[in-house]
Write a structure and sequence with these properties.
10 strands, 3 helices, eight-stranded antiparallel β-barrel, elongated
Length: 285
């Protein structure tokens, strides 16, 4: 198992443990024994509730894909040692085109845009701050292309970029934790901006090649609008940054996926209505 995979699993365990710790404090602390239990419940204040609310979100959208290998054209006097120009195909074998320089040159490996789906469980720890446990799935096509010149020594040289290999079964799995802020002071026409920062683990899965796993950092920007009571419609953009291990280079390239999504969020209040109303009234003073 790769070191990055171990780190991903360790991080996921830590994040899950942290979320469980917050959930364990969901129940308000016990008050002193009183004659009337109902009266004790009304004595609880806003600060007695560690978890203010939960949210359940489900969304769908599109992942932008990314380019994780892009090599320049070689100078015509370049001397190549055996294996220097090898490019690995999605079946695990060296592409024969990569050994036909200068007819084939400047390999590019990229992930094409595809559909993406996911969900979030939000835990409100304050009025506008919440911790989101998230998971997502995206699919696309991994493609390798090269510049093809039919007659490199001829004149004029007519070149075009052609696809030499592809893997239509490429998938991305992602899971982690994000701290989100609902920017209610900036609300316009009922639309609430939402900002967030998250981290977690990502798995880039090919049909044949070994998975490329890594830790990621993510920034989020969204706009949410309450369409009915406790149900919001949201638009969001997530930028995911991670290190993609590239076989041809022997090291990782920093890569970004951008996900555009639309979804619904169900708000589940954990604070009694009178307590929340009293808190909101106090905040407005």
């Amino acid at each position: 198992m790769k070191f990055s995979t171990i780190l991903s699993l360790f991080l996921a365990a830590c994040l899950t443990g942290g979320a469980v710790a917050v959930l364990a404090q969901d129940t308000p602390p016990a008050k002193e024994t009183t004659v009337d239990p109902d009266a004790a419940e009304t004595d609880l204040q806003w600060g007695d509730y560690t978890v203010k609310a939960y949210t359940l979100s489900f969304w769908g959208g599109s992942s932008s894909g990314a380019t994780y290998l892009e090599l320049p054209e070689l100078y015509f006097r370049t001397l190549l040692t055996p294996g220097a120009s090898d490019v690995v195909g999605y079946d695990g074998e060296v592409l024969p085109e990569s050994r036909q320089w200068p007819k084939y040159d400047a390999p590019v490996k990229e992930i094409k845009a595809g559909d993406a789906f996911g969900g979030r469980i939000g835990i409100y720890i304050a009025d506008d701050f919440h911790l989101d446990m998230l998971a997502s799935y995206a699919k696309g096509e991994a493609v390798t292309s090269m510049i093809y010149t039919e007659d490199p020594d001829g004149a004029p040289n007519k070149s075009e970029r052609v696809v030499v290999d592809s893997d239509p079964g490429f998938k991305v799995y992602k899971g982690g934790l994000a701290l989100m802020y609902n920017a209610t002071p900036a609300t316009i026409f009922g639309i609430v901006p939402r900002l967030g920062f998250g981290l977690g683990g990502i798995i880039n899965r090919f049909s044949v090649l070994e998975d490329k796993t890594a830790l990621y950092l993510e920034g989020s920007l969204g706009m949410h609008y309450e369409v009915v009571n406790n149900l919001e419609l949201g638009l969001q953009v997530d930028l995911t940054n991670f290190a993609f291990q590239v076989d041809e280079l022997g090291y990782a390239n920093m890569t970004n996926y951008t996900t555009y999504s639309v979804g619904l969020t169900w708000f589940i209040d954990r604070v009694p209505a009178p307590v929340r109303a009293a808190h909101m009234a106090e905040e407005k003073k």
